[in-house]
Structures are given as structure tokens and as C-alpha cells.
Design a protein that fits this description.
370 residues; alpha/beta; Spore Coat Polysaccharide Biosynthesis Protein SpsA, Chain A; 5-stranded mixed β-barrel; 4-stranded mixed β-sheet
Amino acid sequence: MKSDLLENFDNNDIYSIILCGGSGTRLWPLSRKSFPKQFLSLGEKQKTLLQLTIDRVKNLSPLQNRWLVTAQCQENLCANQVSQQIAKIIIEPEARNTAPAIALTAWELMQENPDSIMVILSSDHSIQNVRSFEQTILDAIKLAKNNLFVTVGIQPTHPATGFGYIEQGLPLDNEGNILSPQRLSETTPTGYSVRSFREKPNQAAAEQFIRTQKYLWNAGIFVWKTKTFWNAYSHIQPEAAKLIESINKYNISEVYKKLENIPIDIAFIEQTSHVACVPANFDWNDVGSWSAVRECFEQDSQGNNTSGEVFLLDTKNSVVHSTGPFVSVIGMENVAVVASEDAILVMPLNRSQDVKKTIQYLETKNPKLL
């Protein structure tokens, strides 16, 4: 059922493109290369991050306009979780980052509906307040209809060094026109021009970005006309575009591996003009650590986030998940205890980023646990 916000919204040309090829291990030991975090259920609702992502776009795109892009090794995982909720799964022969994945999808969409608008989303993010998410995407669609390449920016909550940043420029109205000071006093901007993109900064630069209040986190959410994108991409990346145009079901593996392994930001967004940014009106988290899991998902009266067969006594503000043995935690605070069939992780939540050191150890000592 559509919300009031979308009651008169014509979504026949709006395609939701969900990128689902990641192989992150930041939520190890539950997240593995063969079972990355988008397939995990981390909240009481028992829906996975991927399933929650699809739920968010149901009002934006009809079933026939929901596409998923994933790696060949994850095709069955995707089909098992969302087969009735999407119309098409595009299979990458191998992971080549977001630029090849998006370009391949855009070329297939050019054959089906060149007048379409692509709403490109990650499958492994947590977004609270679906109605605000819908409003943000609708604002982005308005700008995209005027041939702008639109990215969604997140208001920073701290000087993170792990995200890219977007520097906001001049305020824009619904049609992408710059708002004069007089009009700006009468109306709220739909978005902003983009002055620059900054890749993952050091701590000092990130703190400076926060102070200026002109920078947003780059969430990796993009909206644009398919035809406008393909024309620009073909100009900026002519060799890659020609390779993609030559792909058929017989040669895709051979051709795809020739494409550069590169994110869409560097391959396209940062090299083109007519880029706009819409500030997000929703809470966003890339769920990049176990401490983030506690922030994003349901907590009990003691501030604990749990799943699986667990028992807690006098334990507060902790994350306890098990897909394997029974786990009991007694008298602890601000810890993560995560158990799978073959591995257990125990740490203070403020050491969540150090999981990567476990991954580095396993890469040389026991890679089968990755």
C-alpha cells in the first residue's frame, strides 16, 4: 500500500537497482566471503539487510522494475531470499566493483526502457524511517528528470575517516536551477550543486569538514536517467562502454574481466559535470561493525541487541549473536559476543574496528574461516 506521499506518484519508469555483490568480513564471524552481511538478519524482525532494502523500494518501483546485481557465487543466496520480490537478477561473472556493475545494468536497461530512471542502492545499509527515505528519493528523481546526476548525502555525525565526502555548492530548486537569495528565503532547496568530492580523508581533514558544515558523507545512493547516464558514461569511459556493448551470453565472462575494477565515484561521478546532491532526511548506517549493529537494530530494556539461542544476566549495552552454540553472558557491559558454528568473537564494543586484525591473521593462518 502506497503512503500518502506517493499517492499520485507515477513509478512506471522508476527502476530500483540494488547492488548485492559485496563480500565484506567486518561482521565476522557471521559475515563471511561466501555469506556477506547483506544476507544476515540482525534485528528482531528476522529480515535480512537485503530483504529490508527491497521493502524500502516497494512503493518507489513496481515489482517488474526491481533489479538486483550480484556476483555469480551469490546468485543462489539472492534467489533464496528475494526471488518473489524482484523481477531480474543480473549476474556478474566476477566482482569488478560498482562502476562495471552499474554500467552493465544501465546497458541492459537501455535495451528495455531507455527512458527509465535508475535508483541505485546498496543492499547492506541500515536506513531508518522509510517515509523520509521515500521523500529524499523523490527529491532526487525530480532533479534527475532535469538531466542531473544525483547523489544522496548523509549529514555527518562524527569526523569519520572511512567515508567519502561531498562538498555542497549552491542550492537548487526542483528543476535544478540555482536558487537566488530572495527565492531561498521563500522556499526550501530540493538539493545542491556539488562543488567537489573528497575521498576518505585523514582525521584532521575530516574534523575540518565537520566544522565547515558544508560536507556530507557519500552514501553510495545514486539517481539518474538511464539514457543521460549512458551517453555521458560512453563519453567519459569509451573503452569500457564499448566492451559492455559487445557483451552477450556467450562472451560475458571473457569481456567482463577486461573491465577496470573501479568504483562508480572515481570512474564516472567525479569526472562529470551536472552533479547534484540531495541531503538525506533519514538515519543511515553502513553497518560496518558490531558496534554499529547495536546502534541500528532493536535493543531490549538493558540496551542489548541479541539473536540466536542466548541467555543474558546482568548484562548491558552489548551485542550477543549466535548462529551456532548456546551462548550465556553474565555481568558484562559494552561487549560483543558473536558465535558461529566454527568461530567465536569476544571483544569490547569500542574495539569493533579491530576485527580486521583477526581477518588479517586468518588470511595467512586459517583462510577457510573467512
